[in-house]
Amino acid sequence: MSMLLMICAVICTVAISMIAVSAVRALRRFEDASTELSKTAEAVRVSVAEVRAVSKQIEQIASSVQIPLQRAASEVGDVGHRAARLSHTMMNEVEGPIRNTVALLAGLRTGTRSLLTALSRRASRAHLNGGYDHE
Questions:
Q1: DSSP state for residue 129 in the 8-state scheme
Q2: C-beta separation of 80 from 87 below 8 A
Q3: Whole-number Å distance between alpha carbons of 44 and 30
Q4: What is the pLDDT of residues 36-86, one digit of tens each?
Q5: Is the pLDDT of residue 129 over 60?
Q6: CA dist 39 to 30, 31, 32, 49, 73, Å?
């Protein structure tokens, strides 16, 4: 029986040694994983810091561009209003004389037509009278 106990003791010792070796390997892997995780966390911290710096720069650029853009938009609006007023003023100044000119031309056309009609009637009467000029 003592031989059986010795074999069991050897098997238990080997088993405990294997468990210890497996535990050491697992701890090394865990240590490697934690080292990689630490490196990744550091890289994330650096990236977050860079993102914050870029974000601040973008905010500064946006705020520095915002005022000139608002000014430019306001000036464009002012120019548009001035152009509209100028156009309205020109239309008011030009519309009256153009209407008068159109009315004058219409009257001239009507008067010319009446004159030509009267002259053509007179000329046709002269032929009916025998063609003699009695004046």
A1: T
A2: no
A3: 21
A4: 999 999 999 999 999 999 999 988 888 888 888 888 888 888 888 888 888
A5: no
A6: 14, 12, 11, 15, 49
**For residue 34, is pLDDT > 70?**
yes
Contacts of 126 (CB under 8 A, 6+ apart): 133
CA distance 94 to 88: 10
Residue range 88-102: mean pLDDT, rounded: 85
Q: Give the C-alpha separation, 45 to 39, whole Å.
A: 10
Residue 59 Cα distances to 45, 62, 80, 91, angstroms: 21, 5, 31, 47
Phi, psi torsion values for 132, nearest 5 degrees: -90, 145
Question: Residues in the chain, how many?
Answer: 135
> For residue 29, which amino acid is it?
R
